Every structure is written in C-alpha cells, then in structure tokens.
Amino acid sequence: MAKIRITKEFKFETAHALKGYDGLCKHIHGHSYELFVTIIGEPIEDKNSPKLGMVMDFGDLKKIVREEIVDKLDHALVLSSDSKEAVNLLGRDEMFDRVMIVDYQPTSEKMLVDFAARIKPRLPKGISLYSMLLRETVTSYAEWFAADQD
User: Fold this and answer.
1) What is the set of domains in the chain, with CATH numbers?
2) The whole model's pTM is what?
C-alpha cells in the first residue's frame, strides 16, 4: 500500500523572551505563529470504516494539536524556567494566568522538539509524525523532520 502524507495548518499568537540572548529577542515580544503538522501513514482500507480512504481524519489531527499545543500557547507568554523572575508573576494577577514556564529556551527550534514529544504519543497506531514547520515571522521558520531524529 502507498504511504501518504497529510498536513494540517494551525495559527496562534504567543509571546516569549529569550533569556541571555544578545539581541532584541531578550525582551518580551510576540509572534503570529503558523504551525504545519504533517503525518504519514496508509489510507484506511476497511470498507466498514467511516474513515475509509483517509490516512487520518483532519478533524482528529486538529483535536490532538489543539489540545496539546494551540489551546495551551495561544495568547500565552512562554518563558524559560531559567527566568526566575517569571515565576514571581504567576498567580499575582489574571494578566499572568497564561504564563507557561518551560525547561528550555523557547526558540522556534526547541518549541518544535517539545511539540513533537506532545503529538507523537497521541497519534493512532500506524500513523507517524513526519514533519513540522513553525513559522515565526513572514520570513523565518524552523522545521522538524522525523527522519532527522536519533
């Protein structure tokens, strides 16, 4: 059977700051992120399945990515746990209710590694995460490919 790749696109607004960075991105700033998630698998051949002919229902992929990534990051501020002062913001005011503290520098590159770890276990048997592209600006993006991972 033929392997087919399907891709779903997501958009979300997120702010971050890169602690220790030697440029303007050390300051809190935001991006209109675009995330493209591509999976690979064989189309379903079971004639009794309502998903006949699909690798995976786009709606099912959307649910996974929304729950694991978009709903958590949209209109959130993402900071590294190295940003000790960020922890002081939590619980002080509703303005800081959507602060996400991560154990890595929140660059597009490291965010993709995190996203892959969140998505892969949720995929159905026989479906694999193939690649992801995270666009941070109109002219800048990072890519993750399963084939490149150790």
Assistant:
1) 4-148 (3.30.479.10)
2) 0.92
